[in-house]
Specification:
The chain is an alpha+beta fold. It contains six helices and eight strands, in the order H-E-E-E-E-H-E-H-E-H-E-E-H-H. A hairpin with a 4-residue loop joins strand 3 and strand 4. The longest helix has about 35 residues.
Amino acid sequence: MATALRRIDTAADPVWEARVDLAAAHRLAARYGFDDGIWNHFTLMVPGETDKFFVKPHGLLMSEVTASNLIIASFDGKVVGGQGTIETTAYCIHSEIHRMHATAACVLHCHPQHATWLCNTAPGRLLNCHQDLLSFDGQVAYDDTFPGSGATVEEGRRIAAASGGKSLLMSASHGLTAMSPSVAEAWYDLYYFERACKAMYMIVSSGLPMRIVAQDIVDESVARGKKYKKEAAEMTYAAQKRTLDRDQPDYKS
């Protein structure tokens, strides 16, 4: 039976800070048009736990998520904290990714417009045609199998395996999943990968020949991106959260 949530008004409390971080990701996704009505899901492992994660209650829009209305679900699909239910695919996909990949504390799955466009093309690969795309080279797993809805644990397990422990997964005819040790890093990947896909979309839509960057330049960009990713992600996320602090401060409630 679900337990009622008791907010702890302590800024230094890691569980509350985790709630605030994940709530911010939902609000930012809604702001940038990454959301899909009541569907798609962002999850985060509860600090100090090995088999429980935060997720939004099924039926809420991402724009309605707050730190306090996130529920806690266990790896067996039970709601053990907060009020509401967990949507089937959120349980089946996210629990298996969290279970199989210890570094995937945060899992953000959604269908942003341009990443989904790429998922729906063949072969569906991001090409190194712009400087903002280069750091993703070799960092993305591509799953070219689409067996239908991810509404079974078996399919969730297959998706988790297909990710290969990489920080991004492109699922054919489906969408994008970002997986990282923190909300900041997962959001950083999600946000900039969608922008990268948009850049490629604009080039393809122009009908003009595409310039491909030399591989040695690509490799240098990948190395630099890895070196500074954590710092850049934290700074970027803090900056974007400040925009929420100004106009949607209730996300922290």
